[in-house]
Structures are given as structure tokens and as C-alpha cells.
């Protein structure tokens, strides 16, 4: 399976310049190729093939006066940039033809110097990890990497990213064997919420850390400072980076916390069941900020990735199961309850329920039932591999398909393809 390993990159001033030049060239190549495809379509010509495009916008362009500077950077990231365009087109065509599930993917768009995130990809031809721990990138040099953990195997490609707060990251794609942990007989249902982050059917409560809410004061101050700076000034650019950095800090803390929580759950549990929440729908409501702050999609993605890696199971229960209305003891549908009702007593059997714990127990029962229907057996390790890390970036639509996916059955054979 493919996994991504990310690290901070610390380029020198000279290397930052070389990277900036390469970001620029990769963007120009991408945009030229996109323009050529658009023109071909306008002229009623057949869809240009990537090999022809490569000759046109890289090899050929280098020989022209206005694109001669393309020769000053490594060719590998330029070719990868064209691959990204191909992927973006493929995603679009698959989305139109219905081959691709989830939200509609639009036509690829032109990239801009002002895009929030700049990235480059190098394949095996373009990078090497040196014995001294530095990362050699073609035509950039030996760049220092903060190795926060060891790479488990030889990486097949590396992506260099410059984020809006001005930080550089590298992420390596590594092909590793899944390391199945010893099988357990524990199963839990998880009810995600905003009051408490999660309640597990075994009674464990995970408090909501509310990272965004806690940092709001600082974020507002940074935002206010930005709004006072003159349009187009250097100070404004600096203030913008400061806002971006403050947001990045919140995001990092959240991701770190999510990693810890999901690792613990996957280690201790053989099968985890979650409700399929309509995160995108909720994010349009009054709760948007809190929903965003909770990072439910990331929570689920991390659980699924870790389950695949360690031989555990993650099952998703349908979005429309009335998990908070049914009594988990006797199964009677007790009717809808407003969010303010934290505890209730079942009218049929008289059990007093904590709202979230009852929901978690129902999710566990529904997940178990789904699973038994799907494979008719007990929970074994590594039966379902929910999703693999994608080996390459998918063009311009980085986040397409990540959210708002159609609800799907996660059974033994239910291996969704991205
Ligand atoms: Zn009952």
C-alpha cells in the first residue's frame, strides 16, 4: 500500500530562489498545455495527446526566445506538472461520464502565481536522499529535511509544497507492506458530536478540544492587523503570511491531536463503526465553524488509513439511520429529540439513556449488522482495505472527492476506488 510521509523542508535562500523559479516554470508549462488543449477544442481538432503536448510546451518551447528560461530548471517536475494536468482532465471526464463518484469535478483551471499553495513533484529521476540525510533535488541542490520520523522504505516520488504561511514541506510516497496487528475481539461504535467530540459505545468520552475557538482571539488580532495594511504593500504581504501562519498552527495542532486519537482507537479496537455524516451539508449551517474545527472528515480518513495499514476494520453506517431516536436496549423508535435533550428515558422499556452513548451503541449494532450481511462472518483482520493513499496528487482539484462522497456500503468487497 502507498503511504505518504511528510516533513518540514528547510531550503537556503538560494534554494528558495531556485524552487521559486521551478514553481514558476511548472506553472507556465501547465498553463501552456491547458491553453493548447482549449485551443484545439475551439478549432475542432482532436484532443492533443500528452506526448505531443510535452514536445510542444517543454522541448519545443525551450528553443523559443520567450520560453528559453524553461531550460534553467529540472525537466522532471515540468513533466510531472503535465501529468497533473492529464489527471485533472481524466477526473473531469470520469466525473462527466459518471465513472467517478462524488462531487462534480470541473474542467482544469489555469494556475496563478497568487495561488495559495505551490507544489512540485519529482520522480525517482529527479531526487535522491543522501547518506548525510539531505534531500537532493535536481537543479535545486542538497536541501535540509527535518526528519521527524524515519522513512520505512525507498520513496517513489516526492512532492515539495510551499504553503500560504511560507513554510516548505516535502511529502514522500512510500510503498509499504501493511503491518497487521494481533487480532482483537473488540468492536466499538462512535458517535461524533460537537458538545463532546466523540462518545464510544464502550463508554469512553473524548472531549472536544475546540482548537479554532481557543485560538480565535489571536486569529482575529492577526486579521485586524492585516486589514489595516495598505493594499499591495510589503507590510500587507507580511501580515497575510502571519494570518496564514496562525491558521496553519491551529490546523497542525488539530491534525496532531486527530492522529493521536485515531491511533489509540485503531490499536485498541478490531472494528470501528462510524456514522456517515453530511459534513458538507452541516458546514453550510450555523454550526459551520464548529464543524470545520472538529475535522470529522480527517478523523474518518485517518481511521480508514490506519485500519488498512494495521489490519483493522472501519465500517460506515448510513447517513439516514435514526441512531439518536432508537432505544439501544429494546430497539423501539422513540421519536425525534432536539439537540438540547442530553438524556431521555425510553417509553417502552424505561431505560434511561445518555443521548450520545445510546447513539454510539446503535451505530455499533448497525455497523455489525451491515458487516455480517456483507461477509457473513466474524471480524477478522484486514478484511476490508477502505482506502489507500493516492500515489500522486490529483491535478488541480486536490480536495475533490474527499468530502461529500455518496454514502457507500463498507463491506468486505467494498473497496472504493478513487
Ligand atoms: Zn427501550
Explain the overall architecture.
This protein has 418 residues and is of the alpha+beta class. 39% of the residues lie in helices and 17% in strands. It contains nine helices and 14 strands. It has a seven-stranded antiparallel β-sheet with strand order 2-6-7-1-5-4-3. A five-stranded mixed β-sheet has the order 10-9-8-11-12. Helix 1 packs across helix 3. The longest helix has 35 residues. The C terminus is likely disordered. The site of zinc ion has 8 residues, from loops.
Write the layout of secondary structure elements.
Layout: E1 2-10, H1 13-42, H2 50-62, H3 76-97, E2 118-123, E3 127-129, E4 135-137, E5 141-146, E6 155-162, E7 168-175, E8 187-192, E9 196-200, E10 205-207, H4 211-228, H5 234-268, E11 271-275, H6 279-282, H7 288-294, H8 296-310, E12 313-317, E13 343-345, E14 352-354, H9 355-375
The chain binds zinc ion.
Zinc ion binds near residues 327, 329, 346, 348 and 351.
What's the gist of this structure?
The chain is an alpha+beta fold and 418 residues long. It is 39% helix and 17% strand.
Q: What is the chain-wise order of helices and strands?
A: EHHHEEEEEEEEEHHEHHHEEEH
| Molecules bound to protein | zinc ion
Number of helices: 9
What is the 3D shape?
elongated
The average pLDDT score comes to 86
The helix content is 25-40%
Oligomer: single chain
Largest beta-sheet characterization: 7 strands, antiparallel
Low-confidence stretches: 377-418
Strand content range: 15-25%
* Total E-strand runs: 14
Task: Name some characteristics of this structure.
alpha+beta, 418 residues, 9 helices, seven-stranded antiparallel sheet, five-stranded mixed sheet, 14 strands, binds zinc ion
Amino acid at each position: 500500500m502507498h503511504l505518504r510521509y511528510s516533513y518540514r523542508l528547510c531550503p537556503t535562500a538560494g534554494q528558495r530562489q531556485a524552487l521559486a523559479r521551478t514553481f514558476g516554470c511548472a506553472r507556465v508549462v501547465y498553463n501552456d498545455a491547458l491553453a493548447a488543449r482549449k485551443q484545439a477544442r475551439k478549432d475542432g481538432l482532436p484532443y492533443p495527446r500528452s506526448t505531443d503536448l510535452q514536445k510542444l510546451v517543454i522541448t519545443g518551447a525551450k528553443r523559443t526566445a520567450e520560453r528559453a528560461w524553461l531550460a534553467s530548471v529540472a525537466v522532471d517536475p515540468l513533466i510531472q506538472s503535465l501529468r497533473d494536468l492529464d489527471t485533472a482532465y481524466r477526473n473531469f471526464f470520469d466525473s462527466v461520464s459518471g465513472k467517478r463518484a462524488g462531487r462534480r469535478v470541473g474542467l482544469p483551471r489555469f494556475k496563478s502565481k497568487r495561488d495559495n499553495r505551490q507544489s512540485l513533484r519529482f520522480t525517482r529521476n529527479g531526487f535522491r536522499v543522501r547518506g548525510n540525510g539531505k534531500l537532493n533535488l535536481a537543479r535545486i541542490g542538497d536541501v535540509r529535511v527535518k526528519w521527524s520520523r524515519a522513512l520505512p522504505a525507498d520513496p517513489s516520488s516526492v512532492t515539495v509544497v510551499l504553503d500560504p504561511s511560507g513554510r516548505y514541506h516535502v511529502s514522500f510516497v512510500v510503498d509499504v507492506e501493511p503491518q497487521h496487528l494481533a487480532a482483537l475481539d473488540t468492536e466499538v461504535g462512535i458517535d461524533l458530536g460537537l458538545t463532546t467530540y466523540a462518545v464510544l459505545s464502550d463508554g469512553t468520552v473524548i472531549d472536544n478540544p475546540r482548537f479554532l475557538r481557543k485560538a480565535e482571539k489571536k486569529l482575529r488580532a492577526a486579521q485586524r492587523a492585516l486589514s489595516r495594511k495598505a493594499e499591495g504593500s510589503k507590510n500587507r504581504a507580511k501580515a497575510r503570511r502571519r494570518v496564514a501562519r496562525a491558521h496553519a498552527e491551529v490546523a497542525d495542532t488539530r491534525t496532531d491531536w486527530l492522529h493521536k486519537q485515531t491511533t489509540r482507537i485503531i490499536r485498541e479496537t478490531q472494528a470501528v463503526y462510524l456514522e456517515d455524516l453530511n459534513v458538507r451539508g452541516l458546514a453550510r449551517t450555523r454550526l459551520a465553524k464548529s464543524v470545520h474545527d472538529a475535522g470529522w472528515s480527517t478523523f474518518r480518513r485517518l481511521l480508514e488509513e490506519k485500519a488498512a495499514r494495521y489490519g483493522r476494520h472501519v465500517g460506515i453506517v448510513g447517513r439516514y439511520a435514526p441512531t439518536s431516536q432508537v432505544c439501544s436496549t429494546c430497539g423501539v423508535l422513540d421519536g425525534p429529540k432536539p439537540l438540547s435533550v442530553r438524556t431521555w428515558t425510553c417509553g417502552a422499556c424505561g431505560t434511561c439513556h445518555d443521548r450520545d452513548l445510546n447513539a454510539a451503541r446503535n451505530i455499533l449494532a448497525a455497523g455489525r449488522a451491515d458487516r455480517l450481511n456483507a461477509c457473513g462472518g466474524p471480524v477478522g483482520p484486514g478484511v476490508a482495505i477502505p482506502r489507500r493513499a493516492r500515489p500522486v496528487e490529483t491535478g488541480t482539484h486536490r480536495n475533490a472527492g474527499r468530502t461529500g462522497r455518496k454514502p457507500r456500503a463498507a463491506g468486505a468487497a467494498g473497496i472504493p476506488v478513487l
